[in-house]
Amino acid sequence: LSLHDALPICVCAVIISEGKLLAMHDERSPYYYLPGGRVQMGETAEAAVVREVQEELEITPEIIRPLWLNQAFFTEDVDGLHYHELCLYFLMDISHTDLLSKGEKFTLLERHHTHKFEWLPFERLEQEYFYPLFLKKEIFHLPEALTLRTELE
């Protein structure tokens, strides 16, 4: 198996405040998604989720606990390609940062990307164009221990 055949491992940050989830989108994406990205070679998933939040949100979060390891099989809405990825979702603590002072909606630049962020009430996720789909229901009862799930979209 060559390295470029290896399954991508990604991490996502579940950032919650007062019944709202922090979601984002950018110029390439018509739908909302969570902050996060790919784990780099030689990097732990924990280090990767903190790094991705630092890059995208300009804060240093703390990890509360891992929530899900999601095995996702999906077709991307933007490029129409089929994907299979493993994604680790982490519940993050941002209470020691200034993130909440940025407001309900805010925009940040990361290199050549413009990220638009919005705090979405849990109840609104169902109506929103948001991925991953499972989070629309699971956000109401976060697991206490790491939970393995499989999502076929």
Q: Quick gist of this model?
A:
This protein is mostly beta strands and 153 residues long.
Note the main attributes of this structure.
153 residues; mainly beta; 8-stranded mixed β-sheet; 8 strands; 11% helix; globular
Describe the structure.
This protein has 153 residues and is mainly β. The protein contains two helices and eight strands; from the N terminus they run βββαββββαβ. The chain has helices at residues 45-57, 135-138; strands at 9-17, 20-26, 36-38, 62-75, 82-93, 105-110, 113-121, 147-152. Strands 1, 2, 3, 4, 5, 6, 7 and 8 form an eight-stranded mixed beta sheet that branches. The mean pLDDT is 92.
Instruction: Compute the CA-based radius of gyration.
Output: 15 Å
Strand content: 35-45%
State the shape: globular
Name the structural class: mainly beta
The largest pleated sheet is described as: 8 strands, mixed
State the helical fraction: 10-25%
Low-confidence parts: none
Number of helices: 2
Number of strands: 8
Average pLDDT over all residues: 92
Cα separation of the termini: 26 Å
The SSE string, one letter per element, is EEEHEEEEHE
